[in-house]
Amino acid sequence: MVENRGMTSAIRVAERKTMKYQLVLQFGAESLEDFDRLVGLEDKLIEELGDVATVDGHDFGSGEFSIFVLTDDPLTVFDKAHRIVIDQRVPNVMRSAYRDMDSEDYVILWPSPLTEFSVL
Predict the structure, then answer these.
(1) How many domains does the structure of the chain reveal?
(2) Any idea what the Cα angle at residue 18 is, between residues 70 and 23, rounded to 5°?
(3) Residue 76 predicted with pLDDT over 60
(4) Cβ atoms 11, 70 nearer than 8 A
């Protein structure tokens, strides 16, 4: 099978423009084992969330692994993603928040006592 990377990039750019929110799933991660486990989780999210969201990649560094998800319904997508994290038995501590694509301010979803959220 031949993959057209140019077309894939064009589709991702179009999705960024049409999706209203960015949901971030953030995990404590420092080792190569953490990285591999969380890339596997990202693959599962791509598989399971395809009808309601676009997994837009990840960032790894400074003790964190963040997965970025574009969606129009961050609460529903968070619920689905959180169930996937539980089902996959990911041992890394998770934090999650979302923001409007036109804003830098995050709305914290998990855990509820969390008062600050940032992406490094």
Answers:
(1) 1
(2) 15
(3) yes
(4) no
3-state per-residue secondary structure call for 42-109: HHHHHHHHCCCEEEEEEEEECCEEEEEEEECCHHHHHHHHHHHHHHCCCCCCEEEEEEECCCCCCEEE
Structural domain for 84, as ranges:
13-102
pLDDT tens, 13-33? 445 558 999 999 999 999 999
Q: How many angstroms separate the CA atoms of 82 and 88, rounded?
A: 10
User: Tell me, what CATH number does 84's domain have?
Assistant: 3.30.70.600
| Owner of token pair 């963040």 | 66
Distance of CA 7 to CAs 13, 16, 35, 79, 118, Å? 10, 14, 28, 30, 31
